[in-house]
Amino acid sequence: MRKSAKIITALSVAGLAVAAGSAFTGGGLSTSGTAAEDSYVGGSVTQNINGATLTDTSYAYVVGGSNTAVASVTLTFADEPATYGKTVTAALGGGSGTNLTCAGALGAVNHVVTCSSDGVGYASADSLTVTVG
């Protein structure tokens, strides 16, 4: 009786270790089990930034699409007085479609700029170049 209880306990512990190990090895997934909106699952985007410190990038996709056509990119910058009053340009590369147009300038209060494409978007982007100046 004792021997079988020890074996069952050992198997249970081993099973938990395997389950726990596999739960943390799924690269590219968030802790909620779904990919974040700004993720490129199965691909990547190279980002080049000139003239400011970029702290966050958030991609929005064309509604009804398969998340391959970028509708807009929201860029969040660090608060750097040297960038106040400067405009932002952003260009996607490696794909096709209408590229991004950025509105507004950086300032003491505004550190976020949204750059938008048209209704069709920019499909299959593999790079983003951001310039502040």
Topology:
Elements: H1 2-23, E1 46-50, E2 54-61, E3 69-77, E4 88-93, E5 96-97, E6 101-102, E7 112-116, E8 122-123, E9 127-132
Quick overview:
The chain is of the alpha+beta class and 133 residues long.
Structure report:
By secondary structure, the protein is α+β, with helices and mostly antiparallel strands. The chain has a domain of 87 residues. The chain contains one helix and nine strands. A hairpin with a 7-residue loop joins strand 2 and strand 3. The longest helix is centred in the N-terminal third of the chain and has 22 residues. It is elongated, with a radius of gyration of 22 Å.
Give a quick set of tags describing it.
133 residues, six-stranded antiparallel beta sheet, three-stranded mixed beta sheet, 1 helix, 17% helix, disordered N terminus
Please, what is the oligomeric state? Answer: single chain
| Poorly predicted spans | 3-42
What's the SSE pattern? HEEEEEEEEE
- How would a crystallographer describe the biggest sheet? 6 strands, antiparallel
Fraction in beta strands: 25-35%
**Euclidean distance between termini CA atoms:** 77 Å
- Structural class of the helices, strands and pairings? alpha+beta
Overall mean pLDDT = 73
Q: Give the number of helices.
A: 1
Overall shape: elongated
Tally of strands: 9
Helical percentage: 10-25%
> What value does the Rg take, in angstroms?
22 Å
